Amino acid sequence: MTYTPQEDNEFARRQRARKKARLRKLKRRRAMLIAAMVLLLLLLIWGAAALVRALFFKKPVDPASITVPDWVDVQLLDVNPYSRPGTPLEKINGIVVHYTANPGTTAQQNRNYFNSLAEQNGESATSVSSHFIIGLDGEIIQCIPLSEISYASNDRNSDTVSIECCHPDSSGKFTDATYQSLVQLCAWLESELRLSERSIIRHYDVNGKLCPLYFVENESQWSQFKDEVAAWRKEHY
Ligand SMILES: [Zn+2]
User: Fold this and answer.
1) Are residues 149 and 102 in the same domain?
2) CA gap 110, 114 in Å, rounded
3) How many angstroms does the Cα of residue 211 sit away from the middle of ligand 1?
């Protein structure tokens, strides 16, 4: 069988057209594949960013939104420059534990002392306070709202909540009742403020001050205390 020259030309033209169509199809497929891969990559980046945000950049809780439980006796100090300046505490990144360094005094006496500082004037004035004081019988007095700073923890006043603990003698060791209330209060605060276990620190960890003395001199007791806070939180919150 033989083709005429016209038929040969027609055949070649069709072959070229088919080849072109195949090439166009291939290019289209390649473009779609690249677009799908770019989309997948963008989704992966977005997912990874969301995960990192969720894991490491938790939005801090607004301290003003927290209501204290009924086992806390709220006796707020009068607003004054020496113990309750009324400065907003916008976010809380930690809980600082202290001891009063005044053996045998009660939570009420310490709270009243903080409040009496309002009467001072002059340059030698004392500025000190704490959000909470835990007494020898485990009673807890709140002196300052969580939405305001206290004067207890030096450089960390601006982003921490402070707890002063009473103690019966100069060893600084807390009574069982004080200790138990401290465990409970720290676990509750940690949970409400969505803080990690690492956020409970001693005044000592801020600036090296020997406070709370017993937990500075007995490192293992401090570790055990934090374990007990974690256990209480797991069980109750
Ligand atoms: Zn202290």
Assistant:
1) yes
2) 6
3) 5
The predicted model scores a pTM of 0.78
Query: Taking a C-beta distance cutoff of 8 angstroms, is the pair 99, 169 a contact?
Result: no
Cβ 163 vs Cβ 96: under 8 Å: yes
Read out DSSP for 195-216? Answer: --GGGEEEHHHHH---TTHHHH
Instruction: Give me ligand 1 centre to Cα 3, in Å.
Output: 105
50 and 67 housed in the same domain: no
Among 177, 196, 176, 235, residue whose Cα is nearest residue 95: 196
Mean pLDDT of the chain: 94
Cα of 31 from ligand 1 centre, angstroms: 66
For residues 49 and 95, membership in a common domain is answered with no
Expressed in angstroms and rounded, the spacing between residue 153 Cα and the centre of ligand 1 is 6
Could you tell me the pLDDT band of residue 36, with boundaries at 50, 70 and 90? very high
Query: Whose structure tokens read 């001050």?
Result: 209
Rounded to the nearest angstrom, the distance between the alpha carbon of 151 and the centre of ligand 1 is 10
Count up the domains in the chain and report the number: 2
Structural domain span for residue 200:
63-236
Domain end, chosen from 57, 82, 105, is at 57
Protein residues with C-beta less than 5 angstroms from the ion ligand 1: 98, 203, 211
Q: Which two tokens stand for residue 42?
A: 């963008």
The size of the chain, in residues, is 237
